[in-house]
Amino acid sequence: MSFPERLKAARLALGLTQEQLGFELEVTKSTISAWENGRDAPGFRLLPKLKVVLGLSLDHLICGDAVEGVSASANKYGAQVRNDAEAQLLKSYRRLPVKRREGLLAMIDD
Predict the structure, then answer these.
(1) Do 35 and 7 meet the contact criterion of CB atoms below 8 Å apart?
(2) Spatial distance between the Cα atoms of 61 and 110, rounded to a whole number of angstroms
(3) Sign of the alpha-carbon torsion through 81, 83, 85, 87
(4) Radius of gyration of the chain, Cα coordinates, nearest whole angstrom
(5) How many whole angstroms separate alpha carbon 108 and alpha carbon 16?
(6) Is 35 exposed, middle or buried (0-12, 13-18, 19+ CB in 10 A)?
(7) Could you tell me which residues come within 8 angstroms of residue 27 by beta carbon, excluding any fewer than 6 positions away?
(8) Contact, 70 vs 81, CB < 8 A?
(9) Is there a contact between 68 and 60 (Cβ–Cβ < 8 Å)?
(10) For a Cys-Cys bond, which of 16, 39, 62, 63 suits 34, CB 3.0-4.6 Å?
(11) How many Å separate Cα 105 from the centre of its chain?
């Protein structure tokens, strides 16, 4: 699977439109389309934010390495989705804008 295919699959797995992903990254829908169709690629400055928004490691996203759909940090803590409820919760979390994710984590953090 190529970068454009992994990007599109990750976006669709989160239930995001190209427009929604573009909003999160502060780029246009046509930019996302160009990335997904292999006409262009994101610049280095966008990669860290792309990683956060999609919840994937850059190794997986760019190179196809790592466990698909699980970020390197999740692997570090041994996190695994155990049932449909956890999978839905993770999917909903990944759809949140970055600022809301940070707020949610602050709220539940000890």
Answers:
(1) yes
(2) 31
(3) positive
(4) 14
(5) 25
(6) buried
(7) 46
(8) no
(9) yes
(10) 39
(11) 17
Quote the CA–CA distance of 42 and 52 in Å, as a whole number: 14
CA distance 84 to 106: 25
Q: Are 15 and 51 in contact (CB under 8 A)?
A: no
Residue type, 23: F
Q: How much is the mean pLDDT over the chain?
A: 82
48-83 pLDDT, tens digit per residue, is 999 989 988 888 888 886 444 444 444 333 456 667
C-alpha–C-alpha distance, residues 43 and 51, integer Å: 13
The single-letter code of the amino acid at 21 is L
**Contact predicate 91/76, CB 8 Å:** no
